[in-house]
Amino acid sequence: MRLFLVYSSVIILALVSVLHFYWVFGGTKGIQAVLPEKKEGKVAFTPRRVETVIVAVGMIGVAFILLVQNNLISFFTPNSFTKWSSIILSIIFLLRSIGDFKYFGFSKRVKNTTFSKYDTQLYTPLCLFLGIILMTSWL
Question: What sections of the protein cross the membrane (predicted)?
Fold first, then answer.
């Protein structure tokens, strides 16, 4: 079961990375559903391409660290770097699921936007799931 959860997490992270690369190269589908909105319907922030590339590459990095920390890549062994990376990444994902007390996470106050609906149903539970999976890799 544990391997299934780890491999599922890696697939999810890879798909999220591919989606971010799609946006970097000019794709527009789904953009409205992933940007937090203010109550007035205006986007809270617009990420630049370089920030989107960082997220895309970062998701692949998270997947790689998860695989290494769980000893699933034969030519890499878990070490202190992968352990501490897993700890830090699990904290990041868990904090993302808690939220910023305004636009995203379980603590968000802005709740009647397209983003907030997807955040409640998909993004926040996904971050909680990834945080827990990363946590189990170093416990």
Answer: 6-28, 49-69, 81-99, 120-138
